[in-house]
Amino acid sequence: MTAPSNHVLVLVEHGEGSVKKVTLELLTAARELGEPAAVVVGPPGTAAPLVDRLGEYGATKVYAVESEDAEKYLVTPKSEALAGLVEAGSPAAVLIASSAEGKEVAGRLAMRTRSGILTDAVAVDGDGTATQSIFGGAVVVRSRVRTGTPIITLRPNAVSASPAPAQPTTEEVPLSLPDAARGATVLERVVEEKGSRPALTDASVVVSGGRGLGSGDNFAVVEKLADALGGAVGASRAATDAGWYPHQAQVGQTGVTVSPQLYVAVGISGAIQHRAGMQTSKTIVAINKDPEAPIFELVDYGVVGDLFQVVPQLTDEVTKRKG
Ligand SMILES: Cc1cc2nc3c(=O)[nH]c(=O)nc-3n(C[C@H](O)[C@H](O)[C@H](O)COP(=O)(O)OP(=O)(O)OC[C@H]3O[C@@H](n4cnc5c(N)ncnc54)[C@H](O)[C@@H]3O)c2cc1C
Q1: CB of 308 sitting under 6 A from ligand 1
Q2: Alpha-carbon distance 209 to 61, whole Å?
Q3: Regarding predicted confidence, which is higher, 80 or 195?
Q4: What is the pLDDT of residue 193?
Q5: Cβ-based neighbours of 269, under 8 Å, separated by 6 or more
Q6: Does any ligand 1 atom lie closer than 6 A to the CB of residue 7?
Q7: Which atom of ligand 1 has the smallest separation from the CA of 251?
């Protein structure tokens, strides 16, 4: 079990037997740095169904770290599995998704291997330079790790996943957890109930509502448009803080970052903290009654008007065209 120096370890996020989209983005970014090697941590039988998909996006190697212990403890099985691989070889870098869990795994891994860490990168260059977008997107920082194995967490949706088929070989790696890694035991897992809409970070269309909606009930207007477009529903912080929509739907600096093909902002002013989470969307449409609203500075299409008149008409038109 040695990770050669041209290997870039990618921690695989998976669920229900499939690879999460962010992992495909990480594999795509890893190809800039060397040969992607996917690390799957989970109970026995987890890796096999994922291998083909990982190969499709360029993984030349799959490290299967399978153990019943993998789900018994919080983040430590992942950080220990990666630490074992880093210590046994000298991979070029480790890429991890910039989720709350991913950042904790990365932090622990950096401590364990005495390596430098860069979090929330939006791009990684071939020489290992990571780009971070900070202060709500107002400042761009480019940095490179100089100590140990570079550990980089990459924001979901920052890189577009592109296939580059490879034939990965699988290597089984035992999971060894020291006592210090067994401190927090998972007692129960509850599966979140999902509706029929796509997940916010995966959706190619996102329709978000803001304070302009005036109440939680009025979010139905946004949901109808999202459903007509087959999209997900997002919200501004003003709307989630008011309790009109769940916090998980908050788009922005302190919420999720989305980068869909189409982003529709309904009754959202376009504060810098909101823009930080959606400004890389491919096409941006805003509906706002204030022609001076800052959101109009970054839109591709803007409609100045009352959302309660514009959005239902738009929904009807989309529905009609879909037949
Ligand atoms: C540290 C920090 C972190 C933050 N993080 C986030 C974040 O992650 N995400 C985020 O969104 N915000 C965040 N914020 C808050 C941010 O600064 C704004 O306060 C927030 O985005 C405003 O939400 P809004 O656009 O819905 O509300 P408002 O700014 O009040 O805008 C409402 C808009 O609706 C329009 N409107 C009203 N009625 C109608 C109507 N009938 N038809 C059409 N338009 C109408 C108005 O013209 C107005 O432009 C953060 C703030 C701080 C300080």
Answers
A1: yes
A2: 43
A3: 80
A4: 74
A5: 210, 211, 288, 290, 293, 294, 295
A6: no
A7: 9
